[in-house]
Design brief:
The chain is an alpha+beta fold and about 400 residues long. About 45% of the residues lie in helices and about 10% in strands.
């Protein structure tokens, strides 16, 4: 046992010593996290792999969940101190449980343990992540290098070393903006940009931070002094690709970039499936960020009232009709209306449904799209818990 423990400790210190490349990669990611609060639990999992209780594929999944849990808690501002208790408790439970678990049960056990946690121990939802990332200060946090390394290199064949001293963090809207910014932005826009200067939507990576400095946006975007190609438009980094196509850096552009980066973050650090995917019904609030892919709508309640729904299409139709009755001014000709694909031009829709007064709405969405659209709309209206949906495994038509 002592030899096994030494082998496992060696993997934590030197991830490349892990036999499976997928496990080594996950361990490398975890090693970049400044707080190694996860170590006792990861050692327990690796010891079970050495003992042959689980396979490399299971270890890779579990390490991915650990990374997601740590990252997501940072993104919603939950204290890392609570994780000491969480990982210690999980480690103890695995020690009691793993002797009798068949292949596959180990991963499900860890998933259910994570997703059953509530309060300060919870595994943050997608909706909580989206809301927090709009305003979270990520510039002076210990996790910054790890986060941007993962964001920039997600799916890349050529790894960008964020730890390289030549690569620095750059504020698109600078901390000390010059006259070009106050001339280009309205007073309200300027105030909003100042309040979000250290958020993830306003940060990028650059090898030319000194040259770009506090210049105006178009100068930063197009800078090519002495053929040096310092501007965003010349960058090969994923984080700068979108900036090269923007004409004006204002709150609208900031929100759009924040949303794009947030989607990438949710792909990098996904949430495990919630308990209940085993054949029984599960009731979820539209505010939870739940992914209903491969599930069927059983029932729904809106503001305490039962809805007549049979599938995702009828759910979307019924809820949209209610929203337009209750909040007409929030949707007709607005951004929220565009999110619902609300229009008077029926021919522009793939599958339309009339919602009164000559308006039509698109209903040709997947279940996942329906949930994401309604989640965003309900959050904007600040009624996130007003809609709950009962689901079960298996696809429904629409």
């Amino acid at each position: 046992e002592l030899l096994d423990a030494a082998r496992v400790y060696s993997m934590l210190i030197n991830p490349s010593s892990a036999a499976a490349a997928s496990v080594a990669s996950r361990l490398e990611n975890l090693k970049m996290i400044p707080n190694n609060v996860y170590s006792p639990f990861v050692m327990r999992v690796l010891l079970d792999r050495v003992a042959g209780r689980i396979e490399d594929a299971d270890v890779e999944k579990i390490l991915g969940m650990v990374e997601s849990y740590v990252a997501r808690r940072f993104f919603v501002g939950l204290q890392s101190s609570a994780m000491n208790r969480v990982f210690a408790a999980m480690c103890g439970r695995l020690s009691k449980e793993n002797g009798g678990m068949a292949d596959g049960d180990y991963v499900a056990f860890v998933e259910n343990d994570f997703m059953a946690r509530r309060g300060v121990d919870k595994f943050p939802t997608d909706s909580e992540m989206r809301a927090s990332l709009k305003t979270l200060d990520v510039n002076d946090r210990n996790m910054r290098n790890f986060i941007f390394h993962r964001i920039e290199n997600h799916g890349n064949n050529e790894v960008v070393d964020v730890m390289d001293s030549a690569v620095t963090f750059e504020h698109v809207f600078p901390r000390n903006p010059g006259k070009e910014w106050s001339d280009d932005l309205t007073e309200e826009e300027f105030r909003l940009m100042e309040s979000r200067v250290d958020t993830i939507g306003n940060l990028t990576l650059s090898g030319n931070n000194g040259a770009l400095s506090n210049r105006g946006f178009t100068a930063k975007r197009d800078m090519n002094e002495n053929g040096g190609e310092q501007g965003y438009r010349y960058s090969r980094l994923w984080l700068n690709r979108g900036l090269a196509k923007i004409d004006r850096w204002d709150p609208v552009a900031l929100d759009a970039r924040c949303a794009k980066i947030t989607n990438r973050i949710l792909d990098i650090w996904p949430s495990p499936p919630r308990p209940g995917r085993g054949g029984g019904n599960i009731e979820v609030s539209i505010s939870e960020g739940f992914d209903p892919t491969d599930m069927t709508v059983v029932a729904a309640r809106l503001m305490g009232n039962d809805l007549d729904v049979r599938n995702f299409r009828s759910l979307h139709r019924e809820v949209t009709s209610w929203l337009l009755r209750e909040f007409p001014d929030r949707f007709h000709g607005t951004g929220l209306g565009a999110k619902l694909r609300l229009t008077k031009d029926e021919s522009s829709l793939n599958r339309s449904h009339p919602v009164g007064e000559g308006w039509f709405v698109e209903v040709n969405f997947s279940g996942r799209d329906v949930f994401r659209i309604l989640e965003d709309v309900f959050a904007a209206l600040e009624i996130g818990d007003a809609l709950t949906v009962v689901l079960k495994d298996g696809r429904s038509e629409g």
